[in-house]
Amino acid sequence: MTSSRPEILFPLFADLTVLDGVGPKSALNFVNMQVERPRDLLFTLPHGCIDRRLRTSIKGLTFPNIVTVEVEVGAHQKPASRGRPYRIMVRDAEMDFQLVFFHAREDWLRRNLPTGERRLVSGKIEVFDGVAQMVHPDHILRPDEHADLPAFEPVYPLTAGISQKLMFKAAHSALSRAVELPEWVDQNLKAERNWPDWRNALEQAHAPLGPQDTSPSTAVRERLAYDELFAHQVTLAIARASVRRSKGLETHGDSSLQEKVLNSLPFSPTRAQTRSISEIHADMAKPVRMNRLLQGDVGSGKTLVALMAMLAAVEAGGQAAMMAPTEILARQHLAGLMPLAAAAGIRLELLTGRDKGAERAEKLAALANGEISIMVGTHALFQKDVEFQSLRLAVIDEQHRFGVQQRMELGSKGRAVDILVMTATPIPRSLALAHYGDMDISVLDEKPPGRKPIETVMVSAGRLDQVVDRLRAAIAEGRQAYWVCPLVEGSELVEMTAAEDRFKHLRAVLGEGVVGLVHGQLKPSEKDKAMEEFIAGRTKVLVATTVIEVGVDVPTATIIVIEQAEHFGLAQLHQLRGRVGRGDEASTCLLLYSGKLGETALARLSIMRETNDGFRIAEEDLRLRGAGDLLGVAQSGLPRFRVADLEEQADLMKIAQDDARMFLQSDPTLSSERGQAVRTLLYLMEQDKAIRLLSVG
Ligand code: ADP
Ligand code: MG
User: Fold this and answer.
1) In CATH, which superfamily holds the domain spanning 53-149?
2) How is 516-579 classified by DSSP, letter by letter?
3) Which CATH architecture fits 455-611?
4) How many whole angstroms from 471 Cα to the centroid of ligand 2?
5) Is any atom of ligand 1 closer than 6 Å to the C-beta of 679?
6) Is 224 in a helix, a strand, or coil?
7) Tens digits of residue pLDDT in 365-424
8) How many whole angstroms from 166 Cα to the centroid of ligand 2?
9) How do residues 207-241 score in pLDDT, each as one tens digit?
């Protein structure tokens, strides 16, 4: 059984300099395009191709045009003065034209284009002053070398110091090192989609016969993309299986507590909520550990879903914990859940870093003896002395602020605890699959009825004074506003300075005591204090960096101003905008932009104006920016694919996930014939770390 890189792959993982035309210097240049091994070149595909088919003559063509013809070389015409070009008269089967060279070396030209001989020339023909000419032909060959020129020459992505010719040579040299590998793709799928074998697919992908062959929808490209996606999904499926191998508790709630809560609500759950709740309950009832993501836009009602899950744990005689990334958010969850817990008649408490002394000791004792059914809290829930009597479910709010590590730590507070992660980041499905492929996903894709849409307007920063006037009027009406300062990627210090400047400015024009300030450089206690002042309504305008992005709920805040909105990701703007529109009153979002907006920037901000639908925004953002950017570099952790295009080939990701999960179920140790092939794929795709997680490595 293969537990290290199979020998069959060695030639593809050799040093790049083994390839034709690649020396130490060009190898260094290749690194700039993430090409370090022959395998990397296999998966660097041409994005176009040039028709180099031989014609008999240029006669009758429209110009400019790229042409390949055989010519008889005529007279050389040396330049009359410096700066003028060197010309060589040539004649094809029917017409005369000129080859033109600037800064030419005569001896080289005489050697390669000797008068009286025949040559193939290929390049762009243009007409100047009525004379057809080819300036600096791309290719000059003897007629007997014709076979060296492909009929369609692929056009590769390049980087400084790497020419098309070198790229072509190196890619083909890499191809010659690739031998056919055992098939890892499911035979039915392969037949159904008409996919070629791996080796054959590579061969064709590097030899497009027209622009149609470089589209992501060809069978060849699909197959190669699928290989990447499938390898990725197998890795996630292995990770998922290794979590699920740990036995879970079967949690069967009897609905008694849930009924009480539902009866106390002035509304009924949306269909999406009901569906998510039953998906979660079904998971909890299984003897394997739940690892589920609840994804829902701001205001979609995740809290109720989480509560129904927690109540099932309590009904089954256990306890539940809900963890939030900050003290403020934990308090908000507490405030929202408290009345519902009262309706259910159970004890729910808050545990944060602020709990000290006797009060804390009492809470811990009540938790350990089971009096407390649900504990809401922050990281404080991790502390060593926190013991649950029987924790069955851990709910984790806002995934991105917690690492997998912390998820595991909370899980370890109880045997085989079920995990439910909640996120408000609406990411397109193909990305969710790439990002959370090890989890099962429930989506709240429907909002409670009767929400007022947030009016969104774009305002030039030149009209800042008018914005301030508008703010002053709103404050007079008793409304509150957030003022979000520019995002400065990678510099919290610069962000802080901008926020402080804006704070001083607004304080000067709106009045002392009316304006508050929060930013990432404040101590947590100072941050909490500023937030509390705003929540209590003592400050009317809260100047902030993006620290307010997540979850903060102040229903009386109905205006949000976002400075230099063009620098934010759409998903982030949507999150920020979600801070308003939480009460009964109509809300407004002002997107300030500076200078003249480019076309894409304009299109992006316009989407914000058109829709409040987080999923649509995320899809559009993906379309306009590409997958890498969408979640922000820091939090994305997204795999980078060389061939697969998450936007154009979104359906393949889902197929890959289903296939990977099903396959792993039938062959959890990758020991069947196909299992061995899949191992080879994982090594090929440099996903071999996953192999160590296999139950039998
Ligand atoms: P999220 O956490 O997903 O942003 P919340 O759970 O905080 O959303 O819910 C937002 C608001 O919507 C809360 O005031 C909640 O009481 C209310 N809500 C939740 N579900 C419904 C529903 N089905 N119908 C009406 N209002 C609802
Ligand atoms: Mg919430």
Assistant:
1) Nucleic acid-binding proteins (2.40.50.140)
2) EEE-TTS-HHHHHHHHHHHHTTS-SEEEE-GGG-SS---TTEEEEEETTGGGS-HHHHHHHHTT
3) 3-Layer(aba) Sandwich (3.40)
4) 27
5) no
6) helix
7) 999 999 999 999 988 887 888 999 999 999 988 755 554 445 555 556 666 789 898 887
8) 55
9) 999 888 999 899 999 999 999 999 988 888 887 77
